[in-house]
Amino acid sequence: MKKQQCPVCGEQNNCGLEENKLKDCWCFHIGDVPQTLLDLIPQENRGKSCVCERCIRKYKK
Question: InterPro entries, from UniProt (predicted)?
């Protein structure tokens, strides 16, 4: 799995830290990622890439 790939859906996660080497990213402003969503990530992919904004917003609905 690539760092730019969401471990939940497999699409681009648009991580500002990885893609642009910025010190800020959308994920710093979206709030907490629900633990139950993080638990959906397969063990072998945990801690390797960011969950995308689309998955977080969809899960929070």
Answer: Cys_rich_CWC
Predicted structure pTM score: 0.79
Tell me the C-alpha to C-alpha distance, in Å, between residue 49 and each of 2, 9, 21, 39, 60.
7, 12, 14, 14, 19
pLDDT at 21: 62
Whole-number Å distance between alpha carbons of 4 and 48: 10
Q: Kindly list the distances between the CA atom of residue 54 and the CA atoms of 24, 61, in Å, as whole numbers in the listed order.
A: 18, 11
